Amino acid sequence: MTNSLHPNGPRRTPLPPAERSTEGVPTPRSAPSRPSDRTSKPAGATPATAPTAATATRPGKPRDAFFDNAKYLAIVLVAMGHAWEPLKGQSRVLEAAYMVVYAFHMPAFIIISGYFSRSFDMRADRLKRLVTGVAVPYVVFEVAYVLFKRWADDDPSLPISLLDPWFLTWFLCALFIWRLTTPLWKLVRWPLPLALLVAMLATTSPSIGDDLDLQRTLQFLPFFVLGLCMKPEHFQLVRRREVRILSVPVFAAALVVSWWAVPRMNPGWFYHRDSAQELGVPWWVGPVMVLALLGCSLVLTACFFAWVPRRRMWFTALGAGTLYGYLLHGFLVKGGDYWGWFDHEWLHRPLGEIFVTLVAGVAVTLLCTAPVRRIFRFAMEPSMEWAFKRDATELARERAKTPA
C-alpha cells in the first residue's frame, strides 16, 4: 500500500505510485520481502514500506496499515467461508453467517483492488507487472488446481482449459481484465453508472457462458470501478467512531435477515457467476438483484471497513501475502472435501463448526507468512526478465553511468 491516510480527518493525498503488483486480495502480487518488513514496530509507528501486492516500488514510501489489515481480515473471511461450505447445509445459523460474509468479503477485496489501480496505465513497466503478477500466476494455478483434482479426486477426465477458470483462479482472470480496462473507466464521464449498467445487462444474458468467467467478471465490475473512483477521504468517512458504533446493529440486523432468507433465497446470487435465467427466475429479476445486492454489499463493506484497525497490528505484515493465502488455501479446502475430512459427524455440530472456523483462520494466516511467500515466490512473483525487452530509457541511463 502507499500513501497513508491521515488519521485526524480527511486530507487529499496523491495517487498511489506505480505498484509492485496488482493485488486487491487487494492485488495479487507481492514484492520481495526485506528484513525490515518482518521487524515488529510499536503501535503508532510509521509503517515500513513492506513490499506487497498493491504497493509501491519506490523505497521509503510508507504503507497504510489500514489497507494491509483490511486485506488480511478479508482473506481470513474468504477462507472461513470456503471451509463453511461443506458444513452449512445442516446448520441454518452457519448458512446465515455464510450469506452475510459472502455479501461483502469479495466486494471489499475488489474495492481495494480498484483503489490501488488508480495509477495504472499502459506504460510498459506496469503492463509487465500485470503479466508477471496476474497472468502468470493464473496460468500456473489453473494448471495446478486441475492436476490436483485429477490426483486427489481420482478424476483424470477433467481437462486443463485456460479459458474456463476453476475455483479460485477466476479472481486473477477478472483482475487482469479489470486492470486492462482501467484507462477506459478513467476516461468516461460516468464510470460507475456505466459499470452498473454492464453488470445489470450481464445478469440477463445466459449466452455469456463460462469463458474467462466473464459473467462473474462483469457482475463484480461495479465494485472495482467504485474503487477506482474513491479517494482517501471516502475511507475516512467509514473510520469515524459513530460509523463503528452503528455498524454493530447493522451487522446484527444483516444476520437476522440472512437467517430469515436462508430457506427463501438462492445463495447463488452471492457468487455473481450465473444469469437470472440460470438461477431459475425471469430475466428482469437479474437487474433488480444486482441493485439490491450492490446496496447490501456496500453497507456491509462500509461496516467492515469501520472495524478494520488503522494502526499496526500483529497481523499487519501478513497483508503483504494475501494472494498466497488466497490461492494456496484452496488446496486445503478442496483436499479436505475430496478426502472426506468434513464428513465426520462431530464437525457438523456447533463446536465442530467453531473448530473448522478456527482451523481455516489459522491455516490461511500461516499461508500469508514470509517463509511461505519465499517458497512460492517463483510461481506468484516471477521476474521473467528474459521474456521482456529492456526499456530504451533505462538502457540509455545505464550506458551514461558506464565509464568510458
- Helix-strand string: HHHHHHHHHHHHHHH
- Tell me what portion of residues adopts beta-strand conformation: under 5%
Report the C-alpha radius of gyration, rounded. Answer: 21 Å
Question: Quick check: average pLDDT?
Answer: 84
Contiguous runs where pLDDT drops below 50 for at least 5 residues: 1-60
Largest sheet: none
Coarse morphology: globular
Overall number of strands: 0
Percent of residues in helices comes to 55-70%
Pfam families: Acyl_transf_3
Keywords: Membrane, Transmembrane, Transmembrane helix
Domain Acyltransferase: 65-369
Organism: Streptomyces olivochromogenes
Describe this structure in words.
It is built from 15 helices and no strands. The two termini are 40 Å apart. The N terminus is likely disordered. The protein is globular, with a radius of gyration of 21 Å. The longest helix is centred in the middle third of the chain and has 29 residues. The chain has one domain. It is mainly α and 404 residues long. 55% of the residues lie in helices and 0% in strands.
